[in-house]
User: What shape does this take?
Amino acid sequence: MAQLSIPLPPDIGEVVALALNEDQGDGDLTAKLIDANATTTAQVTVHDVVTLSGCAWFDEVFRQLDDRVAVQWNFSDGMELTPAQPVCDITGPSRPILTGERTALNFLQTLSGTATAVREHVLAVAATQARILDTRKTIPCLRRAQKYAVLCGGGENHRMGLYDGVLIKENHIVAAGGILAAAGAAREREPATLIEIEVETLDQLREALTADVDRILLDNFSLTSLSAAVAVRDAHDGPRKQLEASGGIGLENIRAIAATGVDFISVGALTKHVRAVDFSMRFL
Assistant: This one.
């Protein structure tokens, strides 16, 4: 199987340990009903059209419970699945497979749900120059996992957190004394970091185009205003600034937004409004 060349997050083991502790606590009372020496083979099946993501988290669940459990995947992250396809087979001691079933499927359905939503948005803007970005509106403690899933779906990551990018928003601008003051302070402190500033009007955009920033976020602009913003940017005599549309964006309007000529479209719903896709595990 072709593998995506996307680095896995470093916190998979830590996140899985938290999830297992949350679920099993002092022990799985029901799994103890099964003979400790019993072994089994189980199969995971998908029941939706899905972009797969989360295999490493699924594997890690069973590795932490009992490293005798083996998972054989028929697909890899980033691949498209259709209903009724067998996704993987699990073999090994019955108790840890039963204990880990729900936690493993939770990771798989959540991350695949994220990747599937991203793929839908990416396909919706196909043949335009717009690229789909995620945001920091993620499930607590699953930031890195969901941002990995975004990449599996063909999207791109915005900053991972507050520590690896500067995004100057409305309140920062007010507190710093204006657009130029905020941008100047940011560049002085972070000369090698991507700096983005949010604007809410075309007048603010014109001012931001004179600032030392890399990208300008157009917050809740209408389609007409987005088109006007692209025209203002293109007519500006200076280094070309990237434009990012954000706010009130969904599948129903994302194509029209992309057609205005913006460079990026950030969609918080990709990771915030996750619809878990349907997987099931059955013993064979």
